[in-house]
Write a structure and sequence with these properties.
This protein is of the alpha/beta class. It contains 9 helices and 8 strands. The chain has an 8-stranded parallel beta barrel, surrounded by 4 helices. The relative contact order is 0.16. The structure holds 2-phosphoglycolic acid. The site of 2-phosphoglycolic acid has 13 residues, from β8.
């Protein structure tokens, strides 16, 4: 169930411009040099406005590039202001985050996310599918039922395991400097793996990441969770130094 090389995926959110290429370039250089990292598992999910430019500018890629959302319609259509999985793939994206709580809170339902996940997978994008409970859910003891429903209502048996990465991101831990207790997180990561395997009659366990307030100072705490497949890093991924220190400190 464990994986030697971990994923380190950056979610830049609504930050970054052309000049921020230097961050991408430094992380790319680092990935080239450090033998401890698997190049395919270092991913930066950048704004749609930058994916094409970065993809062209990064001549030798030791990292992967991705984006942070896509429209539910796979290719083209009259959807003002939207961008499809097909368009993002053509612009150079290899990964897409779907179901981030910042988008769920703007009205994205499990049913809509199901269409998005299917569109993205049809377009051969790797999907980073976010699940997680709010602070209120947690207090009401609903963590397990919420994340089980988020999986059951969006994913299905046909999901190509190679194309999906689950990211457990408790909403209360995002951008708050709060992280779950390590023993609780361990239980939840294992619950996600087992629930997925059982519900979708999958032969293998899915890959599961943790995300929420990760930084260079707390990353080492997560090293004791063997089953974790990696991390989704928000704020700290907007700095090459912090992002690289997260990777370095994890393996220290
Ligand atoms: P954070 O965000 O690391 O800034 O808490 C994580 C995320 O939103 O993916």
């Amino acid at each position: 169930m464990t994986n030697k090389f971990k994923y380190f995926i950056g979610n830049w959110k609504m930050f970054g411009d052309i000049g921020s290429f230097k961050i991408v370039s430094k992380i790319n250089q680092y990935a080239y040099k450090d033998k401890k990292v698997n190049k395919k598992k270092i991913v930066l999910c950048v704004p749609n406005t930058l994916i094409h430019f970065y993809n062209k500018k990064l001549k030798k890629k030791y990292i992967s590039l991705g984006v942070q959302n896509c429209h539910s319609n796979e290719k083209y259509g009259s959807f003002t202001g939207s961008v499809s999985a097909s368009m993002l793939k053509k612009a150079g994206a290899q990964h897409v985050i779907i179901g981030h709580s910042e988008n769920r809170s703007e009205g994205e339902t499990n049913q809509l996310l199901k269409k998005k996940v299917n569109s993205a997978i049809n377009q051969k994008l790797n999907v980073i599918f976010c699940i997680g409970e709010t602070h209120k859910d947690k207090k009401l003891g609903k963590t397990f039922s919420i994340i089980r429903n988020q999986m059951k209502e969006t994913l299905n048996k046909q999901i190509n395991l190679k194309k999906i990465i689950l990211a457990y991101e408790p909403v209360w831990a995002i951008g708050s400097n709060k992280i779950p207790k390590i023993n609780e997180l361990n239980i939840i990561i294992n619950f996600i793996k087992k629930t997925f395997k059982k519900n979708f009659k999958s032969k293998k366990y899915p890959k599961v990441l943790y995300g929420g307030s990760i930084g260079p100072k707390n990353i080492k705490l997560f090293a004791s969770i063997n089953e974790i497949d990696g991390f989704l890093v928000g704020g700290a991924s907007q700095s090459s130094k912090k992002f690289i220190d997260i990777i370095k400190n994890y393996y220290k």
